[in-house]
Amino acid sequence: MSAKINVDMLQRGLKTRCLGRHVFFSGKVDSTNNWAKELASFGAGEGLVTVAETQSAGRGRLDREWISPAGGLWFSAILKPNLKPHEAVKLVFVAGLAVAEVFSEFYGLRVETKWPNDILVNRRKVCGLLAEMNTVGDTVNYVVIGIGVNANFDVKKALPEELWKNATSLQSELGRKVQLETLFRALLEKLEKVYELFMKEGFRPVLEEWKKYAFFLGRQVEVTIQRENVSGLALDVDQNGALVLKLENGRTKQVFVGDIRERTR
Ligand code: BTN
């Protein structure tokens, strides 16, 4: 299977109403999120998707670097939901559920979600999500949802050594390459479906499904919150999308931004 993306195949048979009706493709960009944000700021409409074979400055959450070699699937979609910013932040769970369902339905993988934006297989990260919002006051102009799938590469060949322990790829898990164009279409179709559910019925049904993949719930975890480590029992993810921790002193704490790890001792 070719490592290259066949542009003509990306939209062939795509069964969406809106997502991916316009696709911008490049062999290499700095970041598909940057590209989509730029297009959105020039008036591009909901559903436009940017895709690249490699990214020279792929970004993760909290401005971390996201290494994006050839063989991965790196893309970003523009959404223009009629929501307030505190509702729009939940779109990262919408995307997470879509990815989890596609990976488990298409490839039979035992997928896990890690709060707030990681998709894991065998406790290693196979996909990351980056939602970025543009607002004016209380109005959301657009949200760009970036999806990065470690797909057709060997982690030990394509990623730096410090990532080997916590990263995996579809290829490593399945022992074969996947068709990137088919995966792209499946992800857009599912994303649209979950997005429509969210817009129609709210966050509750999305969160309920997302939690079914959440391995950390009911476990002892450590969370880094602005360089401080907090330990506790991961009780829940609430209707705000916040992690609810039961601390060692018995109190509960709502965490909105942080990095979670399972506690091994
Ligand atoms: C994370 O795990 O912190 C999020 C990683 C998101 C990576 C994707 S790849 C496509 C899109 N473009 C970017 O620069 N980032 C996202």
Can you describe this structure?
This protein has a seven-stranded mixed β-sheet, with helices on both faces. The protein has a five-stranded antiparallel β-sheet with strand order 11-10-9-8-12, with no helix packed on it. It has helices at residues 7-10, 32-41, 85-88, 91-107, 155-158, 170-174, 180-201, 203-211; strands spanning 23-29, 49-55, 73-79, 111-114, 118-121, 124-136, 139-149, 220-225, 228-237, 243-247, 252-255, 259-262. It is globular. Helices cover 28% and strands 31% of the residues. The longest helix has 22 residues, at 180-201. Residues 31-33, 55, 58-61, 64, 66, 68, 74-76, 117-118, 128-130, 146-148 line the site of biotin. Biotin is lined by residues 31-33, 55, 58-61, 64, 66, 68, 74-76, 117-118, 128-130, 146-148.
Look at the structure and give the mean pLDDT.
96
What about the largest sheet?
7 strands, mixed
Bound molecules: biotin
The total of beta strands comes to 12
Please tally the helical runs, counting DSSP H or I stretches of 4 or more residues. 8
Strand content: 25-35%
Helix content: 25-40%
- How would you spell out the order of helices and strands? HEHEEHHEEEEHHHHEEEEE
Query: Cα-atom Rg, whole angstroms?
Result: 18 Å
Kindly report the spatial arrangement of strands forming the biggest sheet. Answer: 1-2-3-7-6-5-4
Outline type: globular
Structural class: alpha+beta
Ends apart, CA distance between termini? 43 Å
Unreliable segments of 5+ consecutive residues: none
